[in-house]
Amino acid sequence: MELQQIKYFLAVVDFGTFIAASEQVHVSQPTLSAGIRKLEDSLNVTLFNRGSRAASLTAAGEEFLIHARHSYNQLMSVKSRLSAEQDKINIGVLNTIPMDHVAEVIRIYRLTYPYIFIELTVGNNKELTSMLQSQKLDLIFTTRHQTSKQFKVLFEEHLSIAVCAQHPLSTHSKIELKQLNKQPFIERINCESWNEVHDLFKKHNIQPHSVCRAENDESILSLVAANLGVSIMPVRDTPYNVRFIQIKDLNIARPIGICVSSQPLAPYIQDLYEIIMGLYKKDKYSHEKHNWVA
Fold first, then answer.
1. CA 172-173-177 angle, 5° bins
2. What pLDDT digit, counting tens, does each position of 119-153 carry?
3. Domains of the chain (ranges, CATH numbers)
């Protein structure tokens, strides 16, 4: 039984198929399959049920998983502690992206790499770009990165109108821009699409009555929930009594994605990048289900 074989086994469990697992551990599918077969031979058991597209564990595989996960993580943790410097990933997050989505990516990554230390930096595009270029960050979650060929789009996000549940507009499934005319309006200071929204207001001669502005979405949502005004923003998972309504004639979206350093990535950073891309390819992270920011 070899450590690499256990790594292959855990990759199949975590990513569901032999093909997906081979991509994540950077080997061909035949190589990964051969490693799994050798592991099964050494244990004298069958770990996976073959014959279906998804790899499901046998009863023996379920039992082995408990010990394999614990043992692999312990060994890798010891390896990290014995190194001169602990393996670390520096991740930048645009300050208008809700952290819960980034946290979910990290949670999934740490199922396989619990010994990697992760440091998060939150900032605006200019700050994050500078830190990425100076190699202070390994990867950033951001909007379209005009100056880098490394930017990869994960999904696009559209704007909606946020209203208090008691607001008259809350009963609508869709509204038109003209219905916002003279409405008390809360501006989002960090909204990078505000210029486009403002141009549309001017084009349609719409004059919302700005009553206040706030820097972050948490503040915006609390003000909207207090029925102090409406705001234009992406859909958010929120405990506030706020409803999001589609605007028929507002079709503004921006791509959300990741950008990595132009320098060669350490294998464990490359693995994070590929896990992220694999997750979005698999689940699409549609903006109806996972709304970040515009």
1. 75
2. 999 988 889 989 998 989 999 998 875 545 678 88
3. 3-82 (1.10.10.10), 88-154+255-283 (3.40.190.10), 160-251 (3.40.190.10)
